[in-house]
Amino acid sequence: MADVESVPDGAGKPPPYKDPDDGRQRFLLELEFVQCLANPTYIHYLAQNRYFEDEAFIGYLKYLKYWQRPEYIKYIMYPHCLFFLELLQNANFRNAMAHPASKELAHRQQYFFWKNYRNNRLKHILPRPPPEPTPAPAPSQPPPTAPLPAPVLTPAVPHVPAPPSSLPPGAAAGASAMSPMQFVGTHGTNMPKTDMRNPMGNRKRKMG
């Protein structure tokens, strides 16, 4: 009895478990497993092998929710795993993922999210340019016409009457038809020649 009383309380209990590497290996294993939940095919594999019927495994899924805390979430490279981890807390989702059609639906929705998430996010992040002002419609006007050239004013030429003819009306046509040579040949011998020296010579003779 003395030996039993001398043993301190709690001496027969095993010491608490302590990771030899300060939990580094456990951290990496749990990080790898939780990120595998981002793959719907892997979740379908767990459901097909009845992992979701084990209460210990369901408790383990609840334990892994600590990865949603800020000091741990910075190590997550595939954030979809946290979305599926939250869905796995629901029994209906765990049962539905056992069917191939549900797995294909989840995979297709995940693909469309990856395809359009960046464009949808940029619509909310990037500032939108202001709308361009629309020009007011111009009033309906007739098409412009080319200006007409200014009229050129021509000076009025006064009408000058023809000089009266000394010939009789009947001879006017014949006289106009005669050429200058004919006129000289017919009338040249009858025309008197004036000698400018004769009058002067006669005056000298008379004065002498």
From TrEMBL:
Entry keyword Transmembrane helix: no
Subcellular location(s) per record: Nucleus
Biased composition (Low complexity): 168-180
Residue segments, region Disordered: 1-20, 124-208
Alphabetical GO biological process terms: regulation of DNA-templated transcription
InterPro entries for this protein: Med31_sf, Mediator_Med31
One Gene Ontology MF term: transcription coregulator activity
Cellular component annotations (GO), alphabetically ordered: mediator complex
Biased composition (Pro residues): 127-167
The keyword Nucleus is assigned to this record: yes
Keywords: Activator, Nucleus, Transcription, Transcription regulation
Task of the protein: Component of the Mediator complex, a coactivator involved in the regulated transcription of nearly all RNA polymerase II-dependent genes. Mediator functions as a bridge to convey information from gene-specific regulatory proteins to the basal RNA polymerase II transcription machinery. Mediator is recruited to promoters by direct interactions with regulatory proteins and serves as a scaffold for the assembly of a functional preinitiation complex with RNA polymerase II and the general transcription factors.
Binding partners and assembly: Component of the Mediator complex.
Stated family: Belongs to the Mediator complex subunit 31 family.
Protein name according to UniProt: Mediator of RNA polymerase II transcription subunit 31
Organism: Eleusine coracana subsp. coracana
